[in-house]
């Protein structure tokens, strides 16, 4: 189904990649991994010719800053709609949810004119 794909994943090397590895090992697969210390730079799954790469390897900036960096105004978003993430909305396809579904995020500094 996804044979030959390369997947760019945010935070693959620091966190999410370990879930991908666990799933592959549980299914009996032995992926090829390029580590950097205890971090995962990439995971290659030979059977499907599928590779997972941490997007930070290519774009060493915060995810929030990517749309502005590449002038993608239609993808710009300064909040995450945590309250929209419900069982009823799991199959939702459409426009970005309204701001009232967001929880104010205080851990990230506001965007300035700098990229």
UniProtKB/TrEMBL annotation:
<keyword id="KW-0808">Transferase</keyword>
<dbReference type="InterPro" id="IPR012337">
    <property type="entry name" value="RNaseH-like_sf"/>
</dbReference>
<dbReference type="GO" id="GO:0003677">
    <property type="term" value="F:DNA binding"/>
</dbReference>
<feature type="domain" description="DNA-directed DNA polymerase family B mitochondria/virus">
    <location>
        <begin position="1"/>
        <end position="92"/>
    </location>
</feature>
<keyword id="KW-0239">DNA-directed DNA polymerase</keyword>
<dbReference type="GO" id="GO:0000166">
    <property type="term" value="F:nucleotide binding"/>
</dbReference>
<keyword id="KW-0548">Nucleotidyltransferase</keyword>
<dbReference type="Pfam" id="PF03175">
    <property type="entry name" value="DNA_pol_B_2"/>
</dbReference>
<keyword id="KW-0238">DNA-binding</keyword>
<protein>
    <recommendedName>
        <fullName>DNA-directed DNA polymerase</fullName>
        <ecNumber>2.7.7.7</ecNumber>
    </recommendedName>
</protein>
<dbReference type="InterPro" id="IPR004868">
    <property type="entry name" value="DNA-dir_DNA_pol_B_mt/vir"/>
</dbReference>
<dbReference type="GO" id="GO:0003887">
    <property type="term" value="F:DNA-directed DNA polymerase activity"/>
</dbReference>
<dbReference type="InterPro" id="IPR036397">
    <property type="entry name" value="RNaseH_sf"/>
</dbReference>
<keyword id="KW-0235">DNA replication</keyword>
<dbReference type="GO" id="GO:0006260">
    <property type="term" value="P:DNA replication"/>
</dbReference>
<comment type="similarity">
    <text>Belongs to the DNA polymerase type-B family.</text>
</comment>
């Amino acid at each position: 189904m996804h044979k030959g794909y390369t997947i760019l994943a945010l935070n693959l090397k620091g966190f999410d990649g370990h879930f991908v590895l666990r799933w592959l090992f549980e299914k009996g697969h032995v992926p090829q991994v390029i580590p950097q210390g205890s971090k995962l730079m990439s995971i290659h799954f030979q059977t499907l010719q599928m590779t997972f790469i941490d997007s930070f390897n290519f774009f060493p900036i915060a995810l929030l800053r990517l749309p502005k960096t590449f002038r993608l105004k239609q993808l710009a978003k300064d909040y995450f709609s945590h309250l929209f993430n419900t069982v009823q909305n799991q199959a939702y396809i459409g426009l970005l949810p309204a701001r009232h579904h967001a929880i104010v995020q205080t851990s990230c500094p506001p965007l300035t004119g700098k990229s």
